[in-house]
User: What shape does this take?
Amino acid sequence: MNKKSVFFSVLLSLLVFAAFAGGKKDVTDRSVGDKNSWQETFDINDKPSGKYNIMVTATDKAGNQTIAGPYNIKIDTESDLPVAGITNPVENMRIPGNLNIVGTCIDDDAVDHVNIIFDGDEDNVQTATGKEFWSFYLDTNNLKEGPHSIEVFGTDINGLRGHSVKLIWQLDRRAPVTTVTNIGMGTLVSGKINLDGTIQDGNGIRQLEYSLDGGQYFTKLKIKDEKLKEPDENGLTEYWSFTVPIDTHKSKDGPAVCWFKATDNAGSVGIYSFLYFIDNTSPDVKIVSPADEAVNGVFTIAGYAKDTIGIQRLSWKFGTESGDFDLIAGNPYWQKEVNAIGMAKSPEFSVTAVDTAGNVVTVKKTIKIDQEADKPVVKIMFPATDGTVEGTNGSLFLRGIASDDDGVVSVSYKVDNGISLF
Assistant: This one.
C-alpha cells in the first residue's frame, strides 16, 4: 500500500471522539463513522464548570491507530449567561427630572429580552425596549425624592436568565426648601433677634449656610434632624430645624436680608432670602408749646412725634388724666387742650411714643402755672384817681374795663361801704 492509499484509508477509517473530564469519570465516547472529513457537536449545558480534555483516535483498516490530543478545554457555565449592563444612570447619579435608562446586553446565543426591576418590586417587572442595546423611559413625577434602585437582567433565546446588575440613583427634582417660622416676611425688628426655621428635602440636608452681607460670605449653621407625626403634602416626614442669632445693632436701620443656602445630599442647592426691617432708632418726640412762659386756666400743649419707620402709639398724661392721641398718617404734630384751673402746683405733662419696632420714648415737661395771672383784670377809666366829679341828679357815673382770657361772668363795684353788681 503506497502512502497515498494509507492516508486515504485513515481518513475513511472509524473515528472515535472522546471528551474526558480531568480527574473525573465523566467520559463521552462517540463514533463519527467513515468520512473524509467530520465535525461533531457536544451539548455541555449539563456539564459542571471545570477542566476537560478532548482526544481523537483514528484507526485504519489494518488496525493501525493514531491519537490526536489530548487537548485541554475549560467549561465555564457562567460564560453562557447573558451579560447585562447599565450605561445611564451611573451609581449615585443625581437625576433632576425624568430618566431615560439605557444599557447593553450580550450573549453568544443572542438576547431575547431585557427586564428591569424598580425599587425591588419584583411583582412588577418591566421589559425594556431593545435587546443588545436597550432603553427604558421612566417618568419620575410620582416618585418620592431620594434614593431609588434599578436592577437589570437579560434572557437569551434559550430562556437562560443572566445575573442581574443593580445600582442606586438619587431623584432630586426639587431644591431644598427653607422657611423662617417665628416671624413673618417684612417684620420690623430691633436689638438682638433670632430667626428660627426649617428645611425640607427628600434627599436629606448636607449643610445649611447663611449670609448677612448679600451673599458675599456664608456661615455654616448647625441643623437638627426632626420628625413629623404625619407626612406633609409632599409625603415627607423628616425636616431639619435651625436658629440664626442676629444683632441688629451691627446693621443700619432700614431693610435687611438674610440669605440662606441649603445643600441636600444629592448636591442640589436651594437659595432662600428673608426680608426684615431694622429700626433701632427711637422716635423723636418734643413738647414745643408752651415754652418757658407761665400759663393758667385752660390752655393748649403742642408738639410733634417723628419716627423713620412709623409711630404705633402716642399717649399723654397730665396730672391725674391720661389718654391716647389719634394718629394721622404723614402728620407728626399733636396738641392737647388741658385745664389747670384750681391747680396749686405746677403739674407735669408727659408724652410717650412707641414705634412699630417697639422702641419707646417718653418726654416730660413741668408746666409753670401762674394762678394770679388767671384772675380777671379790671380797670376804672372814670373817674380818674384823685379826680373831682359832680353828681347829676344825685347819681355818680362810673366807667371801666373788665377782661379775662376765660371770659368775664360778672363785675361788682363798691362805693364806700356799699356793694352793687352790674
